[in-house]
TrEMBL record:
InterPro entries listed in its UniProt record: AKR, Aldo/ket_reductase_CS, NAD(P)_OxRdtase_dom_sf, NADP_OxRdtase_dom
Active site: Y51 (proton donor)
Domain NADP-dependent oxidoreductase residue range list: 18-202, 207-266
Gene3D superfamilies the record matches: NADP-dependent oxidoreductase domain (3.20.20.100)
Assigned protein family: Belongs to the aldo/keto reductase family.
Claim: Ribosomal protein is one of the keywords in the record: no
GO molecular function: oxidoreductase activity, acting on the CH-OH group of donors, NAD or NADP as acceptor
Pfam families with a match to the protein in the record: Aldo_ket_red (PF00248)
Organism in which the protein naturally occurs: Planococcus rifietoensis
Name listed for the protein in its UniProt record: 2,5-diketo-D-gluconic acid reductase
Alphabetical keyword list: NADP, Oxidoreductase
Site entry (Lowers pKa of active site Tyr), positions: K76
Length: 272
């Protein structure tokens, strides 16, 4: 469920509607980028152990004049780590890096290692999920979820574990609406977070996108991010540029159903 300010997970945790992504932001740049985001109203910061920037993400949040309770922090279990004890150890590393006692959201970064995409790691994912269930029940994490998981990957957890994932973070953008997976997640009350909402920037020069953005008096990036919201997904735009960081959160407009349908018909620019 979502309103203008929050998506609400099935356990009642409120997740701020726009997240600030930190993928590909080096540790030495993360402090300034996260500080700029916080200065401009972001209260949802997304990182991962694999990004190697948790230390400065955490430091920026601690140094900023905002209470810990007002900032929603997400991090992720590295994709190659599978298993109960290894998951508990990686989580401890993450909260030590971030300098927090409780994490708001913790995700399995992917169902398989990035250098073995498609490998069947079902048993390892189940063991990792059981470790995350323990951390959740112990009050160390407010919500737990997955990332890059297909329907089959999620179903394996539903069949073997106690807690339905609260979130699935997936690539979602114009040209890649993942309709079947989105419908599956909605059926199970799993919040879908949209990473790479700008298709890593590759869609922004599309003449059709530029033309439609001009119709709404917004930038192509704003149109792309708003598209995610129109589909009930939570976008995670990323930038180190102050002007774009501000722009990416200014989404007080709606796209007509007719124009959403036109955008749905786009081909994936990243598959060309």
């Amino acid at each position: 469920m979502a309103n203008e300010k929050f998506f609400t997970s099935h356990n009642g945790v409120e997740i701020p509607t726009i997240g600030f992504g930190t993928w590909q932001i080096p540790n030495e740049e993360a402090y300034a980028a996260v500080t700029t985001a916080l200065e401009n109203g972001y209260t949802h910061i997304d990182t991962a152990l694999a990004y190697q920037n948790e230390e400065n993400v955490g430091k920026a949040i601690r140094d900023f004049n905002i209470s810990r309770e007002e900032v929603f922090i997400t991090s992720k279990l590295p994709a190659e780590i599978k298993g109960y004890d290894a998951t508990l150890a990686a989580f401890e590393e993450t909260i030590t890096n971030l300098g927090v006692d409780v994490l708001d959201l913790y995700l399995i970064h992917a169902p398989w290692p990035w250098d073995e995409v498609g490998k069947d790691c079902t048993e390892g994912n189940i063991e990792s999920w059981k470790a995350m269930e323990k951390l959740y029940k112990d009050g160390k994490i407010r919500a737990i979820g997955v990332s890059n998981f297909s329907e089959k990957d999620i179903q394996a957890l539903l069949d073997s574990c106690d807690i339905v994932p609260m979130v699935n973070q997936i690539p979602f953008y114009i040209g890649r609406d993942q309709a079947s997976l989105l419908q599956f997640c909605k059926k199970h009350n799993i919040v879908v977070e949209a990473y790479s909402p700008l298709a890593t920037g590759q869609i922004l020069n599309s003449p059709e996108i530029k033309e439609m953005a001009a119709k709404y008096s917004v930038t192509p990036a704003q149109l792309c991010i708003r598209y995610c919201l129109e589909h009930g997904t939570l976008p995670l735009p990323k930038s180190t540029n102050k002007e774009r960081i501000v722009e990416n959160s200014q989404l007080a407009f709606t796209i007509s159903p007719e124009d959403v349908q036109k955008l749905d018909a786009f081909e994936d620019v990243r598959s060309k």
